[in-house]
Amino acid sequence: MRRLFGRGARSGGSGLSTAALSPMVDLLTILLVAVLRTWSADPPMQAPEAGFKLPLSREEVAVGRGVAVDIGLNGLYVEGNRAGSVAYWIKSDEVLVTDVYELLQVMAGSKVVIRAHEDAPWELVGKLLFTAQQAGYADVELVAVSQASL
Amino acid sequence: MMSVIALMVLLLPMALMTTSSEKLTGLALGMPGPTEEIPPEPPGPVEALRVVRVAEGYAVAAQVRRTDVVTSAGDTELKEFIEPDLASLQTRLASFKKMDEKRERITLAPAADTPTAEVVRWMDAVRRGPEGELYPRVILETVAAPPSGSAEPDGTSGADGTSGADGTEAPAPDDGSAP
């Protein structure tokens, strides 16, 4: 305490010595850099279902904007609206997910962002990739949580 | 000094309030049109490389050009291996990478019931190993359609892609993320 307030207090200054404040500035700088490095300015994802969890990836490429297709454990969602049942489309022999196909055609976008639950079977994800392809979307992204997250 | 601290004290809460702790990333999948196919890889010592998810682990199948003097493109032998985990798979792929350093493409064939999280981990593993970059361009086969209809990369560098029902190719990531 004497070191913090000693000389500054006697001299009528701010009351805090420079030597004591330098570590604090260093710490705050490190904290600020860590926050900027590991946090995202994107708005938090709106999960379509309770317990929705994205897979984890080492990549750090930002997610682009496009028509959001969510694959939950119970349902398929396009832009947050339920479009089909996961149980039905997993069992179905059809490759084209017609419920989603029609909505994607109505959206008439150029990019699809697929957010699949980490436990979603690849067969279903493949069907939706195929559906997006057939709907004329050439640009598709599979969304994951970056390991750089805190 | 006090002004610097005041600035930091302002910036930190502002950054914490306006950002999200969950950083999302996009694995870009270049999708060809319904009637298009993936362009062929430039010829090299390793002419095809495919990894299939099997019950025992990962089955690696590589078409490697014969080392005979009279060998020409297309004259290959099939080498097959079973790797029990991703670490040994990376070691195996690194050996193929040394044989053909120019090759960037690999085909992954997940099983129908493979969880998406495992596919993403798999993609990460084959793109970059402990010794450096492996195969940044990943073609993902899906079980929804026959493998003849493979998807084509969009040619954009810096993103990774997956292939669709008939095989979509993920362009190479450019962020240089650590293994």
Polypeptide structure, described:
The complex is a heterodimer of chains A (150) and B (179). Chain A has 2 domains: 2-38; 56-146, Nucleotidyltransferase, domain 5, CATH 3.30.420. In chain A, 40% of the residues lie in helices and 20% in strands. Chain A is built from 5 helices and 6 strands, in the order H-H-E-E-E-E-H-H-E-H-E. Chain A has helices at residues 2-11, 18-38, 86-91, 98-107, 122-134, and strands at residues 56-57, 67-71, 75-78, 81-85, 111-116, 139-146. In chain A, strand 5 (111-116), helix 5 (122-134) and strand 6 form a beta-alpha-beta unit. Chain A is elongated and about 75 Å long. Chain A starts with a helix and ends with a strand. Chain B has one domain (42-170). Chain B has helices spanning 2-18, 86-99, 116-127; strands at residues 24-30, 46-54, 57-65, 76-83, 105-109, 128-129, 132-133, 137-140, 168-170. A 6-stranded mixed sheet of chain B has the order 4-3-2-5-8-9, with helices on one face. Chains A and B meet through helix 2, strand 1, helix 5 and strand 6 of A and helix 1, strand 1 and helix 3 of B. Strand 6 (139-146) of chain A pairs antiparallel with strand 1 of chain B.
Radius of gyration of chain A: 25 Å
- The 3D shape of chain A can be described as elongated
**CATH architecture term of the largest domain in chain A:** 2-Layer Sandwich
Helix-strand pattern of chain B, N to C? HEEEEHEHEEEE
Largest interface: A-B, 65 and 64 residues
Features:
heterodimer, A: 150 residues, alpha/beta, Nucleotidyltransferase, domain 5, 2 domains, six-stranded mixed sheet, 5 helices, 6 strands, 40% helix, B: 179 residues, two-stranded antiparallel ribbon, 3 helices, 24% helix, elongated
